[in-house]
Amino acid sequence: MVEQRAQDMTAELGVTVVAGFLGAGKTTLVNHLLQHADGRRLGVMVNDFGALNIDEALVDERRDDLITLSNGCVCCSLQGELSSSIESMIRRRGEQLDHLLIECSGVSDPERVVNVLHYPRLRARARLDNVITLVDAALDHAGLSPALRHLVASQVDNADLVVINKVDLVDEQDIARLEQAVLLPGSRHVRTTQAALPADFVFWPVSSEAPKCRRVRSRLSPATSIETLGLKTLSWKHEGAVDMTELSTLLHDMPKPILRFKGVVRLDDGRVLALQRAAGRLTSWELGNWPKGESQLVFIGEDTPSLWEWLSLRLERLPDCQQD
Ligand SMILES: Nc1nc2c(ncn2[C@@H]2O[C@H](COP(=O)(O)OP(=O)(O)OP(=O)(O)O)[C@@H](O)[C@H]2O)c(=O)[nH]1
Fold this sequence. Notes:
Bound molecules: guanosine-5'-triphosphate
Number of strands: 13
Strand order of the largest sheet: 3-2-4-1-5-6-7
Domain CobW C-terminal: 231-312
Function: Zinc chaperone that directly transfers zinc cofactor to target proteins, thereby activating them. Zinc is transferred from the CXCC motif in the GTPase domain to the zinc binding site in target proteins in a process requiring GTP hydrolysis.
Distance between the termini: 38 Å
Number of domains: 2
CATH superfamily of the largest domain: P-loop containing nucleotide triphosphate hydrolases
Strand content: 25-35%
GO molecular function: hydrolase activity; nucleotide binding
Oligomer: single chain
């Protein structure tokens, strides 16, 4: 991998792949890097697992160098779309971009994204600089299904740098236990809050030697496929305002196997709220940049029929429920 990168240092566009399980802090890292780009011109590609791409709204600034890949996962069904989007990013922006950030969906194995970057037609023009995997320190990893634990292990094993994020939410002992459980011996890793990773960890100085990142050997094979993960998504759209009292009760009651929730909600008074739940914690903030009139909610969780029946029933009190 390092040898491949050394050959590619003259290629025009440096690429960082940002991976990590649902809600680990990938968008937070992308936003942090956009804010600490130090004059570097960054392109961003985001990929949400759900049918609605909420990440598009959550990445700071609406930019014409933001490409959204939705309704699938870059590690499987969207590989063709990923490669053509990278090509079009290179074509359209090649001379005006210094670096491309590819944010994978939370259920992607970054190895598959890296494979796309090795396609001959991309190799000469894009240079993979690093794979950064975020791990959610607040998530009960032991409580995940074996397939999802396998996915997280694969994300970690394929990283050049592992970012143990959300260390503000847990104590030192828990962090040490998590590191012991998920990291391979000698893995390059850092701890962060709000994914505040120094930019030097991500962007290689243009004139430097090839990056000395360590490519760990995967202890798992074959690569995780989305089909084996046993996950389901449910998305919901509504043209008008949403009753926050009803929605808040629903979100409060949501069972643990619904692993991730994201939404953008228009309120009666015209304000727009972004809402998220990851590792059981709900956060919300006012959003200034949502051009669409509608409210959108996406839920991702284990494929247990009773869970989705429960959610559908609750969502029926809010109109226009649509299952994927
Ligand atoms: N307390 C705390 N919250 C964090 C931290 N980093 C991120 N968050 C919150 O965690 C939630 C998920 O963060 P995102 O950056 O959207 O996670 P993601 O990996 O992009 O999520 P998906 O794309 O859905 O997989 C958001 O509500 C963030 O504000 C952190 O270090 N501490």
